Amino acid sequence: MRNAVQNLPAPRGQGRRTDGLARFIEEAKQQIGVFPNVRWEDPVWNITDAAGAARAHHAHTCNLLFTEHAGSRVPIEKRIRFEVAFADLAKACIVKRQSARGMGPGPQLVFLRMLRYVYVACPLPVRRGPSKLCREHFVSAENAVRLREKATSAYRIGQHLEEFASLIDRHALTSALINFRCSIPRLRPPEDRTDTDFKMRVEKLPRPEVLDALAAISNLEALKDEPFDLLRMRASELLLVGGFRAGEMLTMSADPIVREFVLDDNGGLRTDPTTGAPTVRIGLRYWPEKSGAPVVKWIPTLANPIVERAIEDIKRICAPARDLAKWLEEHPGEVNIGFPDGTEPVSYTHLTLPTILRV
Q: Cis link prior to 345 (omega < 30° from 0)?
């Protein structure tokens, strides 16, 4: 009888290696180089350099804080840090993800946000011994996500929860299988196939009185005396007419307008019925946020004058800043103090770095 009992298959989740978590963390420590200038034991990881070349408007520091939920302005000193064992697991997962796939800081930030929900769902013994994690902790974390997050964010964090559980099971990091599947449904975008969907889309559009107010402000004569207000209004016009993301509008070139003759059905030039002049359509060349290649967004013909006016005013207002930026690029280590030096063509007096140090 004893031999028969010993030969029975182990219950599900038992018989798994107990050193899986330690090996997993040790392997990750050897791969820490995927994040330059990061030390494993630090409670804050600056992963800005790992993101590769960032667009100009995204050139800000990206930190991973291995702490419980807190406001973005709460300093690390006032946050509740992860227990060391859970922090090691969190860091190992993030390193492994970076090593396997390579990614910008965004997905890693969301993954860490998901880990915070799991951490809060765990009692202290599990936080200090993550190999005790079980499916119930993931279910509790998922319930908290549903309560705290918006629908689109909840789905995304839920997918990371599922990824985390799968990673744990694949590497045998816990004493029992997690076997977790996210139950948060993906938010279905409106398709305008029903009256309800159409109403949802219409409700998201700016109200007519808002558009009328924008048009009235854009045409105020007083704006000519306020260049920065005028600049903001012209930028708003481009966002409204082109439907760009803010970053796409900010990174357009100095001359983004593309012109193209419009052809008729026979392949000939289409002409304006009143003037007889060839019809020209214009577009704006920009770099999409989610892809690298520039594309052209064609503008409705009625909006052509608005776009041309906006680009002309933006170029004029920003010209001094562009000239200075070009000068600084051509004279590294020097400072332009902005006074003409009397030469032709006009150049500007400037101070070199050694001169500044002597002063």
A: yes
